[in-house]
Amino acid sequence: MQSAPIYLTAALYKFVDLPDFAALQQPLLACCEAHDVKGTLLLAHEGINGTIAGPEAGVRAVLAFLHADPRFSDLPHKESWSPKPPFTRMKVRLKQEIVTLRVPELDPNKTVGQYVKPADWNALLADPEVMVIDTRNDYEVAIGTFKGAIDPKLKNFVQLPAWLDAQEALQGEAAKKTKVAMFCTGGIRCEKSTALMKMRGFDEVYHLEGGILKYLEEIPPEQSMWEGDCFVFDERVSVGHGLGLGHHALCRSCRWPLSEDDKKSAHYVLGVSCEHCHDQRTPLQKTQMAERQRQVELAEARGEIHVGAKMK
Hints:
The protein is an alpha/beta fold and 312 residues long.
């Protein structure tokens, strides 16, 4: 019996000055397509960000292509494995920012907070004088976070500056002595978040090097202060300790991660709606989603992957 194919996933980012980022788009896309690698990569003046997946040899070929550029020679990445393809298409997009915060004067290439290794992160979490902030979106925090971390309940990352403005404990010159630690999935939001705090004059600002994914990869469950699963932006939906597959499925209507209990809701209809979005969809939209789900199931019965119309 032939074993199922194993797909390598590589999550990567680097803040680096790329004045010619638009010229990198087509060569990078061609390399990915030539090696059957899929996913999304973002290019901007400030650097590169994204996640790719495919056969191990293909992913390593794309990484080698990137490392050949002196600006990406030390580009770090995090690896995980999946029995199914995490992505259905390959996209290389040009953006204003590789992670959108809309603070034009901010430059993470110049200043960021102090990196904290996963092995040292628990000590920060246990320090009552440290304000630990989860910088991810609300639906990500909902399925897992570090014990004791503050949830700003962000709908998107651009809301972070306004949330910080509303925190009395972070206002005034005296508050700038507050120790602040920030974390996110892979580390990229933390780079901008801590750069923002440094720009605002805070002295002691820390962030988790490599993000939650690196922590879950390196810290054994018995020593971990992580609770729940970690949301990831691909078909795996969530991962746990050791970066093994988590326990969530994705609502195809609103993209909220759903637990087994969530799927017991009377409002959950596979591929159509869930507790979070059932009252936000018109009958026509629900009919269209139901038809899409039917096409997905027909494709699966044929041993194919339904990807729908290609989006530009």
